[in-house]
Amino acid sequence: MTLDAVVVGAGFAGMYMLHRLRGLGLSARAYETGAGVGGTWYWNRYPGARCDVESMQYSYSFSDDLQQEWEWSERYASQPEILLYAEHVADRFDLRRDIVFETRVTRAAYDETANLWRLETDRGDRVAARHLITAVGCLSAARVPDFPGAASFQGPTHHTGRWPHEGVDFTGRRVAVIGTGSSGIQAIPIIAGQAERVTVFQRTPNYSLPARNRPLEPDHQTWVKARYAELRATMRESAAGILADPNPDSALAATEAERARAFEARWARGGLAFVGTFGDLAINPDANELAAEFVRAKIREIVADPGVAELLSPRNHPIGSKRICLDTGYYATYNRPTVTLVDVRRDPILEITPTGVRTAAAEHPADMIVYATGYDALTGPLLGIDITGKGGLSLRRKWAAGPRTYLGLMTAGFPNLFTITGPGSPSVLSNMIVSIEQHVDWIAECLDRLRARGVATIDADPLAEDAWTAHVSEVAGHTLYPRADSWYLGANVPGKPRVFMPYVGGVGAYRMKCDEVTANGYEGFVLS
Ligand code: N01
Description:
The chain has about 525 residues and is an alpha/beta fold. It is about 30% helix and about 15% strand. The chain is built from 15 helices and 20 strands. The relative contact order is 0.14. Bound molecules: 3-acetylpyridine adenine dinucleotide.
């Protein structure tokens, strides 16, 4: 059977892509590893999982009926509520009949003679499609570090991104949590509220800001819904796809009192708006340090033990150069007598034993291990599929020194393969749904226009790809991002090339660039 398009994944990207393809009258099918829709929100069922983009902004804008009828209950939606929303969308737009669940696409090979993508799945399906569109997510390849002895551990182990559907009861348990990124920081306070003991193994302290989550006031919801068109337009033209009200002024130009007032006001407001307190926090190390020290002072205020407060205070990277975390009661959790923090930089994990975690200095008994150890980000989910393009070129080989794309949408030598929120696009540096909708709309329009012009094949021009890849890296070089060992750079995966993968130019500027490429007849692409 030959389809017009196969979509890989049925999270927010895959679902909307499928909807748009159908709207164009194309035959399409999505393959999804999970047993349901929702992607990230299907897998990440750990306690405390919540989106840190506000719910009324972290939602689809493509259907006004949908955005008017759906009611969010909190400022930041919890994982169960976002999953319900995803399921509602799947039902409302009747998407499930074209999604094959519990099926992973394992291979995709471009057949040059037939101009088709030939796919294989782990269930033995064989299917051919004119277009292959990956909607595999940026943070879906979960990573558990290779600790010696890990398999010998006698109790249950759970990665935050592969959490059991039936939930986990921590009552009476001694729980080891490894990792203090966004997932760990959300889960630790809730686990500590239930477990007998929690030992947190921290390699890098993170800057975390208070979420100040609360029930969504009905008046606010009505207000937003009445202005959705205008607010969504502002989000699309913004830097990060959120309504953040950034202050363009320099932190260094303000007086000490003005700065303190500005930081305090945004800290009190809660959420990601803190990073927009001044315009130079992401680019000027001195300005950044002022914001970083403000957060460290807050940690010292909250955490009773000065030694623990110091361990929790990030000092080896600028604020915002690793993904900022939002929390509810994270730092205060360390005031509980049942919670211990282990700094694994000073006291490294040597091995997992049958009954706990052994560091250089001590054995830490545990009945359960929670791995909040993150992902092989951006490239991991794509390279997890054995993809070969023209001349048998494998994507793994092509990207051996880091991803190379044109606009994060295509990679040369792999015709008719589109990568939604691929490396080289704003993706993880933005509200993902804004970036997803922009890519899906761009791809849908492209397929429609090419069909109208009788063009069968689109591929990235290698020269345009070289220029874009250099531009992505150059723009990142003007910021403080490369100063941290982050997953944006692949630093969390041993052996992964150190390349800054997402595009920091901002979703507004990026959208203009993509629209310009379309207006110029797909400049930088080769059509045939
Ligand atoms: O993963 P992470 P995450 N030994 O990679 C540590 C999004 N997200 O799942 O920093 C010891 O950030 C690692 O240490 P280090 C968001 O974009 C959003 O928490 O590499 N420790 C780090 O502390 C986020 O950024 C939301 O030194 C090891 C932790 O494990 C992204 O997903 C919620 C180790 C991993 O942190 C990923 O977040 C959750 C080792 N060998 C996630 N290996 C919201 O919207 C790794 N670590 C709220």
